[in-house]
Structures are given as structure tokens and as C-alpha cells.
Amino acid sequence: MRHAGFAAWALLLAGMATPLRAAEHITLRNGFDLICDHREVAGERVRLYLTASGPNFMEVSNDDIASSEFVELPAAKEATPAAAAPALVADPTPAEIHEMAAKAGAAHDLDVELLASVIRAESNGNVHAVSRAGARGLMQLMPGTANQLGVADSFRAEQNINGGTAYLNKLLERYHDNLALALAAYNAGPAAVDRYHGIPPYRETRLYVARIIHDFNRRKAQTAAHPATLVASTASPAAGN
Known about the structure:
241 residues, Lysozyme, three-stranded antiparallel β-sheet, 8 helices, 8 strands, globular
């Protein structure tokens, strides 16, 4: 797949915990950012573990760490039912939503687990989710964006997923397959990403990007046939991350 490489570098952000708990946001001197579950110090070397258990870690020296801070990874965006959107058909099951995402991903050469992570962050699988800003459905499409994408009913799961996938694909093309920038633009808008020449300095957007890559990694790690030590970055240093 065109974007299969996402898993290779996104796997530094793994396994968002539920309920909320602190994770460590670490910036390395080479410009890489990562979120780790815990660290293990052995002399001048540090192992940054990506999950609460398992062998996935990145080993660096103490001097490689430029800064670190503890953050709480937020839950999926709060959503409320849409009073004016009665379901015309029975709501799809999680398995059916995943199947729709797989079909949309295949059409645009995007990993289904990436789409599943976006859906989780945007609506937590609520077909009738509506944000305070008015974004709707599983992938939280604003009405204007939905119209541009040809989505007639954002509360119909298949239409919403197809539209959201097409939009994410356009953003990936715009930012040359830089997943972190594409996700930041999905959350804050392309204008904000272009203005700051990278991920905007908005806490919500930075945590949004980290949360999705974190969850995407967890999903890929669960399906990996052979666990391995994984090294990656959320964005290139030039991207402003």
C-alpha cells in the first residue's frame, strides 16, 4: 500500500490507555518526537518503552533527550446525538464500520487501521456524533466540507467514511504523505498548517495528532506477526514538529 510506511515511523506512539493516565512526551535532539509509556535507565542508556508491556522500545543515550513532559492523552472528542438526524436504517455495528473503512481505504490506498484510529478520535464510533463546531458523523465532516466531497448525508456511515477518507487522502497528497501534517490539517485546517509551516502550536491539535498515531501504532502492533524494536518519528524536523 502507498501509505504502508506510516506504520514504520508511527509505531513510536503506541497504545493509548483507557482510562486516562499520564504518558511522557519526549523530544530528541535529532528533532524526533515520541510518546512513551515508561522508561528504563541503565547507566547512560535509556530505554523508552512504547507500551505498558511488551518488547517495543527505543534505546537512546541520556544526552539524546532534549526535553520531556508528562501529558494526559485525551479521550475521543465529546459528541452529542443529533436530534434532527433520525436513522433511516439500523446503525452499523463496529464490525460493519470497520468493513466500510476497509473498502474506503482500499479505494484510496490508505491503511484501514489508520482510518479506524481517526474514527475513534473523531467520534468514538458514534454515527450521529455532532461537535460543538457542527462537524458531523463518524469522521466529523463540517457541512461545507461534506458538500465539497459530495456527501449528501453525513449521518450515513458509508457516505461519511468515504468522504472523510477522500479528504484525508487529499491532505496526504498536499503534504507529500507526511501523516502528522495531514492529521494536523484534518484537525485545525490546512491554512493553520501552512501558516506555521508545520503542526500548529495548538495543544489540542498536537495531542490530536499524537493520539491518533498512538492508537494507529497500537492497532498495528496488535496485528504484527513478529514483535520488534521499532524506531520512528511523528514528522521530519523540517516539518516543524
